[in-house]
Automatic annotation (TrEMBL):
The gene is folK. CDD domains: DHNA_DHNTPE (cd00534), HPPK (cd00483). Belongs to the HPPK family. This is Bifunctional folate synthesis protein. Catalyzes the transfer of pyrophosphate from adenosine triphosphate (ATP) to 6-hydroxymethyl-7,8-dihydropterin, an enzymatic step in folate biosynthesis pathway. Catalyzes the conversion of 7,8-dihydroneopterin to 6-hydroxymethyl-7,8-dihydropterin. Pathway: Cofactor biosynthesis; tetrahydrofolate biosynthesis; 2-amino-4-hydroxy-6-hydroxymethyl-7,8-dihydropteridine diphosphate from 7,8-dihydroneopterin triphosphate: step 3/4; Cofactor biosynthesis; tetrahydrofolate biosynthesis; 2-amino-4-hydroxy-6-hydroxymethyl-7,8-dihydropteridine diphosphate from 7,8-dihydroneopterin triphosphate: step 4/4. GO terms for molecular function: 2-amino-4-hydroxy-6-hydroxymethyldihydropteridine diphosphokinase activity. Its EC number is 4.1.2.25, 2.7.6.3. PANTHER family: 2-AMINO-4-HYDROXY-6-HYDROXYMETHYLDIHYDROPTERIDINE PYROPHOSPHOKINASE (PTHR43071:SF1).
Length: 253
């Protein structure tokens, strides 16, 4: 994560997708299909998409919508709460870059004297799960403790790996590193989390140079986020693989 990280977030919104489904506890001999109206939105960093005008850098909202149609239309659900959760999960698992997901499921004429019943899920109310890797070879223990204090100001440390000493791998003429990782719950989006980590690094005195493998007070990296591997370099560091396997064994590397 470079010092020039500056995401450009945009909102994609799909409104009033009208489908038909069986909702409620069903008597199959008398029950009829009912209208279900679905709206959703999400944010993502459109920097590359807008700069290149290339669809491969854009989120495929058509594919997401097709997935919603496939598992909702003419299907059966007891509760619209469960349906809204399934849609939310479907969107979230479409890609790590999707942030601030919002889902609304409406059931028109579900109650006498009421036009509508709806369930809304706002992703900003949900906690996101991340593995954050820490590394330092300048006043390591002190800077680890300071970094952990800063992190607890905007999230919860649920678990931590062992903190271990490792030899420098790419630039060997420097002291050993202290490395570790935490399982972190936060309401911060991926872009916000990355910005907060960069801020903590600066507060603890890290100065970036042309040699990105130089000694450092602290290095904080988002390794996983909501089940996705974020750090493309994770395979180059065996200890990072071990940390993820300890903290999120369900993620396959």
């Amino acid at each position: 994560m470079g010092s020039n990280y500056n995401p450009k977030l945009s909102i994609v919104r799909v409104e009033n997708l009208r489908l038909r489904a069986f909702i409620g506890f069903i008597d199959w001999e008398t029950e009829k299909l009912q209208d279900v109206i679905i709206s959703y939105s999400f944010k993502y960093d459109t920097s590359m998409a807008s700069e290149t005008d290339d669809v491969k850098h854009a989120v495929d909202y058509k594919k997401i919508t097709k997935g919603v149609i496939d598992f909702v239309d003419h299907k059966s659900f007891h509760l619209i709460e469960a349906l809204a959760e399934k849609i939310y999960d479907h969107i979230q698992t479409s890609g790590a870059p999707l942030q601030d997901i919002y889902v609304k499921v409406e059931k028109p004429n579900a109650l006498r004297f009421a036009d509508n019943v709806m369930v809304q899920i706002d992703g900003t109310d949900r906690y996101n799960t991340s593995v954050i890797a820490l590394g330092s070879n300048i006043n390591s223990e002190e800077n680890f403790n300071k970094a952990l204090d800063h992190l607890q100001q905007f999230g919860f440390i649920m678990q931590r790996s062992a903190f271990i000493k490792t030899k420098p791998l790419k630039f060997e003429d420097q002291p050993e590193f202290l490395n570790g990782a935490i399982l972190f719950h936060t309401k911060k989006s991926l872009s916000e989390l990355k910005m907060h980590l960069k801020q903590i690094e600066a507060l603890l005195g890290r100065v970036r140079t042309e040699n990105k493998n130089a000694p450092r007070e602290i290095d904080l990296d988002v390794t996983t986020y909501n089940g996705f591997v974020i750090d493309e370099d994770v395979a180059e560091f065996p200890f990072l693989i071990d940390f993820v396997q300890q903290l999120q064994p369900e993620i396959k590397l």
